[in-house]
Amino acid sequence: MSYVEEYIEVVEAAQLTRLDGCEIMWMFNNGKFPGARQHRGKLLLPLIDVAPYFLVPPTQRDIPTLAGFSDHKRSAAIEKLKTLHAYGVLVDKYRSVIQSMRETRVRASQALNVPLRTMERWQSRYKRSGLRGLIDTRGGDMRRNKAVRRQ
Prior knowledge:
Layout: E1 7-9, H1 10-17, H2 21-29, E2 37-39, E3 42-46, H3 47-50, H4 71-95, H5 101-111, H6 116-129, H7 142-150
Antiparallel strand pairs: 1-3, 2-3
């Protein structure tokens, strides 16, 4: 990935997060974007640092489906949704630079440190079941379950 593709300007970050430039600068000054750099007189923010702040508007179908789950599972599902939103934004950004759609998706998932197959699985589950599809429904502690199976 080239230097410029991994970063976005403050104006772009403001549009993606629906924060204003002053709020983003305040976050920068308080260490929220540790990898920020100056480039040709503009402040560039690392995508990986800005991605958690991307705004994902809630949909009506998602709100009632979360009531039966724990706070931990709900927050994990919302984080997955934010990551999916960031992935979509990055795919659109890279599409203009890269010819291959597969390579575009690979680079976008790498920028977010999430394997491409995981991203594809999350997308499929979200399209099929909404936010409920992103909730981890496996039961118990997986490490403990694996240890029991090995014995």
